[in-house]
Each structure stands twice: as C-alpha cells, then as structure tokens.
Amino acid sequence: MTVGDKGLFWKEEILLSEAKEILASIAEEDKVDKQKYAELASAYEILLKQTSKLTRLSDADEKRLNNLLSRLSRYVSPPLYKKITSGKEKVELNKTRRVKLTIFFSDIVDFSSHSANMEGEALSAILNSYLEEMTNIINAYNGTLDKYIGDGILVFFGDPDFISDFDHSFRCVNMALEMRHKMSELQDKWFKLGYSYPLHIRMGIATGYVSVGNFGSSERMDYTIIGNPVNLASRLQTLAMADQILISHDTWGLIKDHFFCSEARKVKLKGFSKTQLAYEVYGPREEKQDNIVVIEDKEKDLLITYDKTKISAEEVARLIKN
Amino acid sequence: MENYIITPTKYTPLIELSFKDNFLRITGDSYPENAMDVYQPLILQLEKYFAAPKQKLQIELNLDFISTSSKKILTDIITLLQNYYNAGHNINITWYYTDGDIEQKEQWEMFLEDVTFPYNIIPLPED
C-alpha cells in the first residue's frame, strides 16, 4: 500500500475491521475474549479522545477565523463586507456592472498646508478623529466607503444595496448635511488638541451611470467605481467653498423636492468640455420652511441664508452693516 | 543518514528533519490537497530516526493555518512522539504562536494537553 492509497483514518479503519472480525468469530454461546475486548476498548478510547480534540480545535479555528474577519472588515465598507462574506460577490476581475449611483467626494479645506507645521502625533490624532466621525456617519446612511485619500473621502450610494435612484441620492445628501453639522462639533475637540485653525469640509455630489466592480490585478483588487459622474463629483468638491455641498444637475433632479437648494449655477469644470450645472444644498425642505431664511438676488449677485433659530434678522443686518 | 527536507509550497509547510543535528522543524501553512502525502513520509522518517536507542529530538513548530486533515495527522504524530518518549527517547517541543493571537496559543495548548514530555508555547520573535 502506497502513502497515497491510505486514507486519513486508515488506522481507525483497520481497528473497525478487526472489531467486526472479532464480533463475527464469536458464536452465540462463546464467552467474550477479555484480552481482545480490552484492546478494542483502549483503541476506542484513543479514537474518542482524538475526535473530541479535533472538534474543539475546529471550534477554536472558527472563533479565530471570525476574529480575523472582524479585523479585516475594518478595511472594507460594511455593505461590501456583507456581500463578500455572504458569497454574493465573486472576487474576480472583468466582472463590472454599469449602474446608476450617487457619488460623494469630500476633503478638508487646505488641510495639507495648515497641517504642515503640526507634529505627526497631533496630525494623526486630528485626521483619525475626523475620519472616525465621518465614517460613523457614512455607515449610519449605509454608504459604501470606497477609500480615504489623505483627508479626502470617496463614498458611493446605490451599490451593493440598491432600492431606487431617489433613495441613494437622498441618503447621500442627508449624509453630507450631517457631516457638515458634525464638523462644527469637532472644531472644539481639535482646538483642544492644538489645532487653532478652524477646519472646514467641502463636498461634491453627482449622480449617474458608472462601472462598479473589481479593478486591479488578480492579486490585489479594489472594489471601486469609474466613470464620468465620479470625475464630476470630484470636480464639484474641488470647486466647493468651505462648508459647501455642491451637487450635480442629476442629483438635484432627484432630491429637489426634499432639500432646499440654490438656483442652478453654470460652472466650467476641468475635464468637461460642456458647461455643467451645479447647485448648493442648504438644508432639508422642512427646515427651510420653518427656520432657514434665504435672501437671493442673482442680478446683484447676492445670496444670504441664515437659520432664524440661531441668529435674528437684526443681527444679520448688523453683521452686514459692519 | 541524509537529512529529510521537504520544501514549502503555498499550501504546505517546510519540513526539515536533521538526523545529524537532532531537530525537526515544521514552518508555514498546512492545507494540502492530501495531508497523508505530506505527513505520512515524515512519520516513516521519524520511525527510522527513533530506531536508534536513546535518541534526542528538538522539535520546532511554526505553523499558521492548518487544515483539519493536517490537524488529525499532527495529533497522530504527537501521540507517536509521546510513545517514543515513553520508550526512553528525549523529546522537546517549542511551538511558536503569533504574538497577541490568543486563539492560536490556545489551539497549540490543546494539541499538547495530554503529553508528558517537555514543551514550550512561546510568541514568535519579531523579525
């Protein structure tokens, strides 16, 4: 018998076959051979111990695997992690899909230049606390975190979980508004960490058809998106002022009934031959009706928005006068 | 006698049994297509090794992922080593685990919980 012919449990199989032979050789009226019976019992004891140990080892392996997966999940967005571990996502290249998504880009205004004089520890503390808070918000809105690019964040909505075009654009804009709100809370925290310059976020959002799937090599791939709307969202983000959320015309078309936005602005963006329409998102519609006051005069290039629960009209007038 | 060396692959560990320097090292992952092909020749080599009386063997195990089949044979090998120890041979195992990986350390402890020969389960030194 060669090694390859032997099964993993060949010794146990021999033991079982011997036990059967002994049993067959015993006639009804015979007494059991005590010696042989003791040998069988001893072998069975070893077998039981080994089976019990292998079961416990296998359980320990499952526990270890779960812990490793949990660690690995921190490098992947929760929706994508769920898709991969459920077996729905085939980890292979050249299997991209063309789908309509809403894409979000953000960065911190002038972060690189302002952080140039900071100590590495303080810089990483600020950046990590920022990314931690923003990621919590992304997850709360079930966005797919594509990647961090320094202080920049790329998120998309509508894949792997798709409900409707309105749903992904609505969730994305809501997320952006919550991020902006969170930034004001973070100012105080960062100030205490030694960052005296007030940090501001700027955001760009676009909706449209992109290719989504695995891009890269067979050894190392990214589940990401490519396409014109990705570039558009990126360009809108670059164009945005501090604390501004700029959205594309497609996104605006989907969410305009739910958010108060500026009039369309014609913008010329790098990489786009045609003029694009961009809109600034101010806040949810309900908020506008109740609290947000807007004074806009396009001819005079005037735009004032304020929350009347936070500042009075008199105070606004006084600020303008000063 | 010639040393017994099996070079590692993506799925099988490096196996080195030195008849001259009295050590056995198994290093790497172990999830081969057929675990018997990998470990049964080693068992035969160990039988040759312990054919001489009063042999001494220092064993170093540095394993990461191990398939259930490999675990089954490893328990067979450990039982075999216990038998050789009972017969008067000098056996010692040093089994490395990834520093901080408590689950892995617990697994190696499970493998050795019934042996009476000396052993150490220690964290793998950093490179």
In short:
Chain A has 322 residues and is α+β, with helices and mostly antiparallel strands.
Written overview of the protein:
The complex is a heterodimer of chains A (about 325) and B (about 130). Chain A folds into three domains: about 5-75, no CATH class; about 95-285, Alpha-Beta Plaits (2-Layer Sandwich); about 290-320, no CATH class. Chain A is about 45% helix and about 25% strand. Chain A has helices spanning about 10-25, 35-75, 80-85, 110-115, 120-140, 165-190, 230-240, 250-255, 285-290, 315-320; strands spanning about 95-110, 145-150, 150-155, 200-215, 220-225, 245-250, 260, 265, 275-285, 290-295, 300-305. In chain A, strands 1, 2, 3, 4, 5, 6, 7, 8 and 9 form a nine-stranded mixed β-sheet that branches. A two-stranded antiparallel sheet of chain A has the order 10-11. In chain A, helix 1 (about 10-25) packs antiparallel against helix 2 and helix 5 (about 120-140) packs antiparallel against helix 6. The mean pLDDT of chain A is about 85. With about 130 residues, chain B is of the alpha/beta class. Chain B contains three helices and six strands. Chain B has helices spanning about 35-50, 70-85, 100-110, and strands at about 5, 15-20, 25-30, 55-65, 90-95, 120-125. A six-stranded mixed β-sheet of chain B has the order 1-2-3-4-5-6, covered by helices on one side. Chain B starts with a strand and ends with a strand. Classes of the chains: A alpha+beta (about 325), B alpha/beta (about 130). At the A-B interface, helix 2 of A face helix 1, helix 2 and helix 3 of B.
